[in-house]
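Fold it.
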Amino acid sequence: YPGQPYGSSAYAATAEDTSEPIAAIGEGGISGYVKRDDLMGPQPKNPEEALEMQKQYQEELLNNGVIERTIPLYDETGKTVIGAFAARGASDIPKE
């Protein structure tokens, strides 16, 4: 990502505030960068789709306690994939 700012998303108030690329440590301890859109994952196109996605995420969290997707990990150019990054979301909702 020559010429572009980059950093961590730790202090971003919203996804839009996150600089891109985002520094990340991928699987196997590989240092690289992820793209904001990859990290955010699929976004709903309408309210109905948002409700359906929310239902699917809640079911996955209740069943597994975590949501995990693997996204590409890039080198400093942002063009070459050098590994994978596990994007995870967890919940404190207890399993029944």
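The mean pLDDT is 81.
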